[in-house]
Amino acid sequence: MKKYLLIVLFFPILIFAKSYHYPLIKTEIYFSPGGDAQILQQRTYAFSGSFSWAFIDLKKKGAQDIILNQVAEKIDNVWQPFIAQIQDNKNSLYVRWQYRAEDETKTFLLDYTVVGAVKRYQDVSEFYWKFIEDEHEKIDQIILELNLPEPSKELFKVYVHSRAKPGVLTFNDNYDKATVTQSDIPANAFVEVRMLAAPHLFPELPVIAENRYAQILAHEKRNFLVSLLRKFVLFPLGILLVIVLPVVLLLTFYFRYGREPKLPYLGTYEHEPPRKINPILLPAIMLQKPDKTTILQNVFRSLFASILNLTTRGLISIQELDKKEKSKYRFSLEKPERVNELDSFDKNIISVFFHDQNSVTDKELKQYAEKHQAKFQKQLAALFSDAAYWWQQTLGTDLVDPVSVKAYHRYILFSLVSILLGIAGLGSGLTALLGVSDLAFFALPFAAGMVLFVILIFVGKIILRWSQPAYLEQKRWLNFKKFLTDFSAIEQAPIKLLPIWEHYFVYAVALGVAQKFLKNITDLALKHNQPLTLPVWYAAASKTAPADMASFAQNMANFEAFTSNFTNMMNSFSSSAASGGGFSGGGGGGGGGGSSGAG
Hints:
Immunoglobulin-like; 3 domains; 8-stranded mixed sheet; 6-stranded mixed sheet; 15 helices; elongated
């Protein structure tokens, strides 16, 4: 039972492990005076695995008929014919033969005649045929011999159309034989030949009453020029369109639309908050073109700052829990009855933070954020949107200049068109340069182009700029943030900062500089030998007595630890809330073609 189970399990693996390719396909074509072509094709197969049959499906396009003469296998340098299965219809000749092969090389002969292979015009005779079919495995080398009924020194031209690298074309001294050698033919890349010779070589063939020689030469010239165009024009043009032009457009649009407006404001520091506002409003004016994660992280930080702001008003208390507890802090709503008296922002903040409870620990809050991630993200995004609307109403204008928004959209459209055109050029040029037809060589430029386009969507946001009132507001808040982090500026401030430092601390939390500000304000207090009054909510939570200079250092060390833990907690929460889940290309107009396979 186990034996059969193993066979069932490994049978698919064994099947897919089989493979083969062609080390060599040698084709000899002999033309008769009547315009028929006898094709002797030796196909050498290199098998990896066990094989027992092969087939070839020969299309009759461009011919009157295809007649199979024989199929044979080379054994000890002697051709041994065998009976093949044939399916013949007006469109194709399907040939299948049986053999036994396992991890070895075998050579088979296909001998067939293409009836009506040559077209005889008044000024030229033409043979146009795919001697390597459209669908096949990889071929290491092909050799093609074209043998005319008699010499044709006055006119004997051979054009080879293939997606593979160019090979070698030679003529013998009598000009009755041409040989084509080509290597590294990728899978499913046809090879066709177009032979032109003097029309009198085929006296038994009726003459088509028209001159075609000049037209055929013009067509081949176009093929050659198209191949050169793909290799040496489309490929570099593709690079230009995919990379260079979008960058040039970006710089052009930025210097035209993206530079921030000039302001009649030259301040270096703001010693006081530019406006007495709810901290939850700050992200909307500080972030001009944020991504989703940045919005959530900044709104979450401002949410905590707003909670601290409510503690200064006695509405919320913060209790440090015993170190043995998994939670570090408990936030309690002390006066629920006063919530209805608050403005809409504070109501929303309490709703998001406490989610219909009067008390919550940091651990419970984090678990809620992770469990209801989509809802929590939506609530934070709504706070940001409400804040942006508040600024628009307050400033009387859009935050981002509408002209720059339109310019950004135009830039994205122009870049997309440029990249798509460039991808087409790169793919076409790459296949021509490498001599392959595999669509994977279009997939590579497409993938690279789309990655670049996504990058440009984000980088292109430099085109967006503030409206002048919004830019002035942001500039003032940035200068206030710089003031909070610069000890020399705090030391020289014209205001008495020490008695009201906790109000500044709330904004420092929202602006992400709480620890730096706390260090500066502590150093300032020590320098002036003046102890800071710790926040009422913190003193109550930590059961710390009113500070004098003797206990000030220890109290501030405790508060610094609280600030550090609080900052880490905010970062942890924001992370939880924000995370989520003579050769040329072209051709294909010749007769023949088809497919081949083995198994």
